[in-house]
Structures are given as structure tokens and as C-alpha cells.
């Protein structure tokens, strides 16, 4: 597994998710504990707004350049990201409000995320080539952030400027090193592709992975319209409740949250990696059932979160079931969407050899664009939900969470059911 993570594709997924979560789990809490509440508010808004804006740009980029940029160029972009992220972290921890204001914070954060777009595409293309859910690598990134979050709550020294700078810059430095190494070994990769022509053809045909409008529409509705918004709404309501308690000088909820996340996501990682093939419909159905049931329990418990007598216990139970089933639900959704693309018609993604004769590939919608849209939307779900809850009063979180959860559950089960029925019909035909 470690060997896989050190490959460019999995490493980009792992570190990309770590970079996405780092402000929410570590930097913002470190600023609050350091007494820089105004800088925390500035950074929080800059992070949320830039994640939404860069997500839109990432989708446009995937449509314009589905094959991505060379690894060497991406390594240089990662180096620039390291410089920008280091400067931004330094200003957030040291600069006065007159210097570190919302416009500067947004410009620095957005520029860094825009440079990260072609790097993230390496992970997207790896997922489409392998047809394996990237959930396990995202879980690893999440666990790494949780370790930092627990550390800063237990020992304020972990929230100091030197540690914050190291945690902010290190992911980009590692990413740049691995991508530069991959770029320098192109000759060896070329020789390997001669010995393994099937992999070489898969790489060359990446821009030919396309699907029809009907399938693309279903993909967008399920993967981007419904997604895991139901989970995100409840998550952000919990996050803001923890933020209020932390600002009031109480660390019990925050510490309980991070410790339980660490335990539950470790179990989720074990479940995701040790229960058979990622394309298994039975595995995906079990995951989405567990996820939907968990969301119902969390919605019922949400109203008791601010209870002084047992609020911490309620939070621990909610976080444990969510962070165990949440990654599994996301993995089930990934499996269903990849299965939808795989069975949508002839072409490299479905393993067919008819694409050249059919001409369908040339007229279809690129799978790279669709998968980038899905990954971008999933990253935008929580920032958008948090911005809505921060700036809008009277949002009915419980009702909206239930509706979106139900729609996602029905869509995933329908795809797995269709795949099972088509497989049964094919087996009967063969018999």
C-alpha cells in the first residue's frame, strides 16, 4: 500500500485531500488558540470562497486540457504553491489586520489553488485509468489532518508558527519532489510501456474516454447535484457548533471530535481496503446502506448537540458513525459513478475495441471532464454549505439533509441494481 501511495497518482490524491482539509482541521483552530480570532475569520472566508472559485476553474480546465500537463511542469507549479502557502501562513500568524485583510488572503489562497489544478488532474486521470475509487487515499489524507488537529488541541506548541509553516509547505515540497522524479524517469517509463502495451494504450487513449449525453446527465445529477450534500449539511452544522465552543474557551467538543474521527476513519480505511474489489456491487450496496442509515441517526441527534449535560456524548456518537460510514458512502458513490461510465457504451473505459469504428468517442463527453466535475463538486460541498449556514438564518438542516441523502441512496442503489440485472441476463444468455 505504501508503494502505491508513493506513485504520482495516489500521492496527488492523498496530498491534495490533505491540503484541502488542513485549514479546516488545523490552521483555523491554531489561529483561534493563538488568540488571532480576526485572522482566523479572514482565513476561513478566504479558504471557503477560493475553494468554490477554483473549483469552477478546475472544471473548465479539464474540458480544455483533459490529458493534463507534463509532470515536470506540475512539479514547478507545486514549488510555487509551496512559496505562496508559506507566505500566506506567515502573514496569517504574524501580520496586523491592516496588512492581512480579506482581499490579500483571498488572492493568495486562490492563486495557490489555481496552480494546484493541473497537479490534481494527475490524480483524476489515475482514477479513470485504474477504475478504482480514490477513497482510501482520501482517508489517509484525512487521518493525517486529524493527527495534527489532535496535537494542536493537546499541546498549544503544535500550533506555533514554525510547526504551522512546516505543515503547510511540506505537502507541496513532497509533491514537487515525486513529480520531478517521475518526470526524470520518462525514458524508463517508455521502455516499460513497450513491455506492457496495454498500459501504454490506456495512457494514450485517456482523452478518448467519453460517454453519451444521457449517461453524462445522469452522472452529473447523481454525482454533482445530489452527491454527499446531505452529509455535508449536517457536518457543517456540527463544525460551527464546535467553533462556537472553541471560541468560548472550551476544548472538550473539539478534542472529542478529533479523537473519535481518528478511530472511526481508521476503521473505515480497513473496511474500504479489505473487503474485496472496488467494483463489487455488493460491497457498494452495503456501504451506501450503512451511510444512509448513519445520516438518519445524525439528523435525529443534531438537536441534542448543544446540550450541556450530554452534548459531548452525543457528538462522540455522531462523529463515530459518520466518519466510519462517511468515507464508505463516498466510496460507494464513486463505485457507482465509475460503473456508470464503464457500462455506458463502447470505448476504452468499458474495455471495448469498437470506438474507432463507431465514432461515438469523438462525439461524446470526456470522462475526464465528468470525473473532475465530480471531484470538484465534492470538495465544494462543505465550503458552500458552511457559507450558507454562516450567512443565512433559519436553514432547515434536518429536512434538507434527509432529502439529499435519500436521493443519493436511491441513485446509487439503482445503478448497482441495473448492473446486477444486466450481469444476470448476460449469464443466462451465456448458459
UniProtKB/TrEMBL annotation:
Keywords: Membrane, Transmembrane, Transmembrane helix. It comes from Polarella glacialis. This is Uncharacterized protein. It comes from the Eukaryota. The chain crosses the membrane at residues 12-34, 72-93, 99-119, 139-157, 399-421. The keyword Transmembrane helix applies.
